[in-house]
Amino acid sequence: MADHQRMRIHPVDLEAGGRHRPTAPLVPGGSFDVTVTATNPNARIGIYYEAGSSLSVWYDAHRLARGALPAFYQGHRNTTVLAVVMAGQAQLGGAVMSALQDAQRTGAVPLVFRADVPVRVELGSLRLWKVTSRVRCDLVVDSLGVNNPVNIKASNCKFSLKL
Asked: Late embryogenesis abundant protein LEA-2 subgroup domain: which residues (predicted)?
């Protein structure tokens, strides 16, 4: 496999936090601290991660939190680790909230992590066109407890480019 095909962005750690207000049980709010690792194993190209990225965490069809990566340049043969805080407040109906609570009790909460990240590749002094790197990770975590590390029990990530 060529080096340029091994570039990847993937979430490696997830932590739920914030306040869950007992007076509004159908509106879980809070934040996810997501550690994103971007790897560029290529010796010839650099990557510009541009402004305008979109990161989100979903339960069922409900977005729980969103955030963005900072714009940055990633040099040759480099691994960059970024800590991103994703915040949100979801309006969940009774059935969805009940299903989420059941999933937490069993220790298997299905989540989806999505990322759309605009990038430009630099080859020597030539900066190529902008493409959007798309990532979708189907995750199973043990819980969404307040101020507890979230352990990822299973993950399946897919990557694509939008020209």
From this structure: 35-137
Q: What is the pLDDT of residues 71-84, one digit of tens each?
A: 999 999 999 999 99
The residues near 3 (Cβ < 8 Å, ≥ 6 apart) are: 41, 42, 43, 44
Nearest to 155 by CA among 29, 58, 10, 54: 10
Q: How far is CA 118 from CA 13, 29, 61, 162, in A?
A: 22, 28, 24, 9
From the number of C-beta atoms within 10 Å of its C-beta (0-12, 13-18, 19+), residue 67 rates as buried
139: Cα separation from own chain's centroid:
10
> 146: closest CA among 17, 15, 26, 14?
17
Beta strand 62-67 with 148-150 is unpaired
Q: What is the pLDDT of residues 19-37, one digit of tens each?
A: 333 333 344 566 788 888 8
Q: What is the pLDDT of residue 145?
A: 73
The amino acid that residue 84 corresponds to is V
Residues of the chain falling short of pLDDT 70: 1-30, 147
- Helices marked H in the chain: 94-106
